[in-house]
Amino acid sequence: MESFKVYILGCGSALPTLRHSASSQVVEIRGKFFMIDCGEGTQMQLRRTHVGFTKIQAILISHLHGDHCFGLIGLISTFGMLGRTAPLHIYAPKSLEPMLDSMVQMFCPNLEYSITFHAVDTSQQSVIYEDRSMTIEAIPLEHRIPCCGYLFREKPTLPHIRRDMIDYYHIPISQINNIKQGADWTTAEGERIPHEKLTNPSAPPRSYAYCSDTQYMPELHKMVKGVDLLYHESTYDSSLADRARLYHHSTSVEAATVAREAHAGKLLLGHYSARYQNEEGLLKEAQEIFPNTILSNEGLVIDV
Hints:
By secondary structure, this protein is of the alpha/beta class. The protein has helices at about 40-50, 65-70, 70-80, 95-105, 165-170, 175-180, 195-200, 220-225, 240-245, 250-260, 280-290, and strands at about 5-10, 25-30, 30-40, 55-60, 90-95, 115-120, 125-130, 135-140, 150-155, 160, 185, 190-195, 200, 205-210, 230-235, 265-270, 295, 300-304. The protein is built from eleven helices and 18 strands. The strands form four sheets. It has a seven-stranded mixed sheet with strand order 6-5-4-3-2-1-18. The chain has a seven-stranded mixed sheet with strand order 7-8-9-14-15-16-17, with helices on one face. The chain has a two-stranded antiparallel ribbon with strand order 10-13. A hairpin with a 7-residue loop joins β8 (about 135-140) and β9. The relative contact order is 0.14.
């Protein structure tokens, strides 16, 4: 099976602590590497996670709060010092573009690679990236400023043809792709062998949704329905629900409710408030609603 992994580089919130770094993740899907958010210190976390700098082909920014983007210009500069030549694609709210242009001109005027900026409409769910094997969708979230999440989906693959059937029925190589796409096979004696007998089903496509930062959204589960892995911010526990509403964040209970209603496979909590010395209370509350919940932590690598 092709790789589909999530690397946690940082899962803290706005106030820096010695326990957690600012928000950042890397999604590895079918040999492609995408960074989501780039808070201060992301470069050091990238080093610790042993993800090669040169592998990052695109950076997706959820919103323009510093703990999600202060590390961006530093990473762009480092790419230049490492001799990057491949284009870098940046997906972010439109208002970042003029500021980013100014910073690049100020700090990185002689880059030997191009930066392509893709403005993301945070107000609607839409596909922002697509290739032959996957899509990335922007998911509108509700925060104090324009903000979106990102949904990674594999595309369905063709079924696998059975090697024993190829040999038994003497199927030529030229017909294998036709059979994968649904064609039956007719033997030299005129016997029709149905497609279903000749193939094994392919693995179901996998999906990952990143939802940070947002207040509780009763309809969010519809946009991430059936996702295999859901990362949902859980800045506070339920005792601080009023504070969560004030700052447009979510509690662990609310994150678990979204996961349960979405019929997600697994819930990953993150974006913890600096007030917590550990997050076991957040985990316990969430697991009472959605048992298959885990805590994100720097250095964690999750197979989707």
